[in-house]
Amino acid sequence: MITGRCCSFFVVPLLALLVSTGLVKVDITPLFYASGKLLPDYVPEADGKALRVPNGEIREFLQRAGLKGGAAEQSAPLKGVYMFDQMGPVGWIDFSYATWDSSTGAADVNMGTVTAQAGVPRPEFGGIGPFVPGGYLIPFVEWVQYKVRFYCPARMQDGDVCNLVESLFGHPYPKKGEVGSMLWHMTRFDGGRKYVRDSWLVPPWVTPDESYHKTHGKFHSYRLFLLMHANGTIDEEHFSRFMEKLDGQDLVIPKILAKFL
Ligand SMILES: *[C@@H]1O[C@H](CO)[C@@H](O)[C@H](O)[C@H]1NC(C)=O
């Protein structure tokens, strides 16, 4: 059964990497990468318009479309636009689309606002995948109505952690302490220029406590690097890395960003 908290489709391909206990890993990333590259790129459309930004126009597009989500609340702990590193073709997440509720300490982000590269990245940038061309991923994320809730401290310092839960198909989010088959943490580093998202598998017979993440091995990690500061300045070091990751490919965008094309 798929509920909002049973599984993350982003990590489903990773399950193939695990052998029973999760302690033994078989690296089949090169295989996933090679087969993903064989898939033809696909560019979704909206109203007859290709949802694609040519590689050479990505910078201008980021400047035009970045931080336009309307929820640029000064007090929100998560601000700015961040690129994904080690998360397959996923491009950037714009926290101006997060709705921050300070009374619950929750920021909700509709993942249907996230971009992707048209093809697949090299494994050094894509981590363990998924190695699916981004043009397939974006409409899929929109279709499953993938949303993430970040429970964060109101004033985040380096080393502070947000707890993440997710929702699919409009299901309600799990409560803060509720954990499904995965436990997710996102930790802040480098004055907020970097976040590290770690995940742990939680077998059904285990109820994780506060120290679960300390006593169990991580399942997967990926990183978010600041691409555009909340004041609109592009982080050049990370932008270069982003373009290197794209390796000449175009950017595929969700429908909600079509108006910025
Ligand atoms: C935007 O913020 C960054 C980080 O605080 C800072 O380095 C940069 O100078 C700021 N840019 C402007 C135009 O204020």
| Small molecules bound in the structure, each named once | 2-acetamido-2-deoxy-beta-D-glucopyranose
Number of helices: 7
* Sheet of most strands: 9 strands, antiparallel
Largest beta sheet: what is the strand line-up?
A: 7-6-15-14-13-12-11-9-8
* Percent of residues in helices: 10-25%
Q: Using only CA atoms, what is the Rg?
A: 18 Å
How would you state the average pLDDT, rounded? Answer: 85
Portion of residues in beta strands equals: 25-35%
- Helix-strand pattern: HEEHEEEHEEEEEHHEEEEHEHE
Q: Name the poorly predicted regions.
A: 1-24
| Structural category | alpha+beta
Number of strands: 16
Q: What is the domain total for the residues?
A: 1
N-end to C-end Cα span: 38 Å
Describe this structure in words.
The protein is an alpha+beta fold. The protein has one domain. Helix content is 20%, strand content 26%. The protein is built from seven helices and 16 strands. The N terminus is likely disordered. The structure holds 2-acetamido-2-deoxy-beta-D-glucopyranose. 2-acetamido-2-deoxy-beta-D-glucopyranose binds next to loops. Keywords: Signal.
SSE order and pairing:
Elements lengths: L11 H4 L2 E2 L4 E2 L3 H10 L6 E2 L2 E2 L1 E2 L4 H8 L15 E5 L6 E3 L4 E3 L4 E5 L5 E2 L5 H4 L7 H10 L3 E5 L9 E7 L14 E8 L4 E8 L10 H4 L4 E9 L7 H11 L4 E2 L9
Antiparallel strand pairs: 1-2, 3-4, 5-16, 6-7, 6-15, 8-9, 9-11, 10-16, 11-12, 12-13, 13-14, 14-15
The structure holds 2-acetamido-2-deoxy-beta-D-glucopyranose.
The site of 2-acetamido-2-deoxy-beta-D-glucopyranose has 3 residues, from loops.
